[in-house]
Amino acid sequence: DSPDWYDADRRAVYNPAPMYVIFVEAGSRVGYRWETAHGIPIACEVNWLDPEPDRDSSDYEFYIQELQAIEGGEDFFNSSDQICQINFFRGCYQPPTEEEYKRLRREYNTD
Fold first, then answer.
1. What is the pLDDT of residues 52-94, one digit of tens each?
2. SS3 helix, strand, coil % of the chain, rounded to 5?
3. Within its chain, how far is the Cα of 34 from the centroid?
4. Under a CB-based contact definition with an 8 Å cutoff, are residues 44 and 31 in contact?
5. Selection from 29, 34, 100, 19 nearest residue 60 by Cα
6. Rounded to whole angstroms, what are the CA distances from 5 to 2, 8, 9, 10, 14?
7. Predicted TM-score of the model (pTM)
């Protein structure tokens, strides 16, 4: 172990990352996306890991209902049962750069 570990200020505050990855499910389809870690979660677009179900499958209607809730910008519950919304980061498939984030804040009047 490093001597720095033992000399570190134990009162230091832990600051978690501003965004983290969560898994998303719509029917049988699975994907992931970035979501804010503080306050009401705000999510980026979903990065799907598998193709859309076949239109003739029994799962397709359920998939479409869940997909519309996820991608429609409506409030929905994420895997932690927290209300989540996607509008702020629409079009972002990964966390935005600092410049993009500032532009979005101006666009949505959140400054």
1. 999 999 889 999 999 888 776 545 555 555 555 556 788 889 9
2. 25, 25, 50
3. 3
4. no
5. 29
6. 5, 5, 9, 9, 15
7. 0.67
